[in-house]
Amino acid sequence: MPRESLVGQTIAGYSLESEVGEGGTSAVFRATHADHGTVAVKVLREKLRQDRTAVARFLREARYGERVTHPNVVRTIEIGEAGPGMHFLAIEWATGEILEKYAKRQGPLAVDEVCTIVKQIADAVQAAHSVGIVHRDLKPDNVMYDPASHLVKLLDFGIATDTDQSPEQRLTRAGFFVGTLMYVAPEALSGELVGPLADQYSLATIAYFLLTACLPFPAKTPREMFSQLLSQPPITLNQAKPGLRFSPQVEAVIMRGLSKEPAKRYPDVVAFAADFCQAGSAPAAKDKPGFASKLASMFRKKD
């Protein structure tokens, strides 16, 4: 059955100009609106419009995004239903490109640029945490980055969860983890509801990837990744790529954020980002004079 094409159509006043993204449950369009200008519109796929769980997930994402108001989070403009089951979400159009694409093309990135990115993601995530929302899917593919302005926008609350949610309200069955395996915190693999510290682990993984163009685990398959996340320590930052070295302070911050035990991480994502930026901006320690330099000074001619 051919997939429904909405390009060229107008729904609820939004003229859909081109499809710019897609997922299993929805499609994302660049659109224009008489009052809002250029926006992004996400529309629930036709095949899922009678699926109660799919509709509930879509509406949950929209409402979570509406609750989180921050300059580094894409702004929710409108949530609506353009026709029977045609649920849509209109959000601001964020300039730039997906961070994943930028990092793969330009990486490894300099520490100061990574600091700029990580700090903004942390501020966005903290805004979500402050209203009881855990993102659960932090990854470079869910971040928009404009290299010209260095502005970051956090996207996609599709699998976020409310920390006050009761077991009866969950849309994910117990025993099933959600998230992206390469960036997910180890505690999420149990399928239990995770807390804000899981987002910190994901942010530390993002920072690791931006700095090294590598991931903390060398797994080649999902099965290997699952096993390594549970049973092995991550590769230390200074062992990630031959010839790439970081200060002990930068490495220590990243590895603390990647602690398998949540209690060993920072108290929150903002504290992690602050320590990372402080470590990255600290001047390199000067080498202490060695025996050779001392010996040379003994024989140096005096003026």
Describe this structure as you would to a colleague.
The chain has 303 residues and is of the alpha+beta class. It folds into 2 domains: 10-92, Phosphorylase Kinase, domain 1, CATH 3.30.200; 97-281, Transferase(Phosphotransferase), domain 1. Helix content is 34%, strand content 17%. The chain has helices spanning 52-67, 99-106, 111-130, 196-212, 222-231, 248-257, 269-281, 291-299; strands spanning 10-11, 14-22, 26-33, 37-44, 76-81, 87-92, 97-98, 133-134, 143-146, 151-154, 161-162. The strands form 3 sheets. A 6-stranded antiparallel beta sheet has the order 1-2-3-4-6-5, with helices on one face. A 3-stranded antiparallel beta sheet has the order 7-9-10. The N and C termini lie far apart (90 Å).
Summarize, please.
The protein has 303 residues and is α+β, with helices and mostly antiparallel strands. The chain has helices at 52-67, 99-106, 111-130, 196-212, 222-231, 248-257, 269-281, 291-299; strands at 10-11, 14-22, 26-33, 37-44, 76-81, 87-92, 97-98, 133-134, 143-146, 151-154, 161-162. Helix 3 (111-130) runs antiparallel to helix 7.
